[in-house]
Amino acid sequence: MTNLVRATEESSQGRFYEPVRGVSFDFGDTIVALDERLLLQKLEREGLSADLARLEAALPSARSAYNAAIADGAVNHPWKPFMRALLEHAGTQPASELERVVEALWLDQPRNNLWRKLLPGMPELCRELKMAGVPIGILTNSEGRAHMLAEELGLATLFETLIDSGVFGVAKPDARIFEAFAMDMHLPAAAIVHVGDSLRADVLGALGAGMQAIWFAGREEQAPPGVAVCEDSEALRAEFVRRGLLR
């Protein structure tokens, strides 16, 4: 029986390998969200026109493209399929320039990361966990500068460790990046719950590496049996209370 099947079956029966003692957070779309207004500014500089409301409405399609790219094995750069789908479904014009602009946005990403809008309640929840003595860290598929972004946003001191796939060289859902995180946290994988928005990269990746998982703001697909789905920071806090991490 694989780690994924075993973890799913045990969690579906309300049992876990052992009590949770640490939390791993994805970064983009879990602690920070896409800043659509900054994206609009970048698009305008590249000569493209887009509408804010249509960009927001296109996000589910872009997330589906991200997960599909991971499922197809494109784990190193699922960012580009995400952005391409976002711009296509938002009707960004002229369409003939999309490939060029996606590449330009990717090259600019390390300098001025588009995922910088703090999600409501998430920094406060991280601080509450830290004050409660719960070890927490970041495990993100990023471009190699996630630590600098965390510092820029005033979040870096909250986390025991931060592993960025762009530095580590392997991306989620590869089990090696989850195993490295557990080693950095000095905890067995089974004692860590990973919180993330991507079903394949975060939820299935964590379960496959022997961790527990919480699907944050999962909407597009059905969660595996026993995996909690939390739509916002309030629901996530309640799940942490249920697991004994907070009061």
What is the CATH homology-level superfamily of the largest domain?
A: HAD superfamily/HAD-like
Strand order of the largest sheet: 5-4-1-6-7-8
Give the termini separation.
35 Å
**Multimer state:** single chain
Main beta sheet, described? 6 strands, parallel
As for the CATH topology of the largest domain, it is Rossmann fold
* Structural class by helix and strand composition: alpha/beta
Task: Describe the fold and architecture.
This protein has 247 residues and is α/β, with parallel strands linked by helices. It folds into two domains: 156 residues, HAD superfamily/HAD-like (Rossmann fold, 3-Layer(aba) Sandwich); 78 residues. 46% of the residues lie in helices and 13% in strands. It has twelve helices and eight strands. It starts with a helix and ends in a 5-residue tail after the last helix.
Short recap of the structure:
The protein has 12 helices and 8 strands.
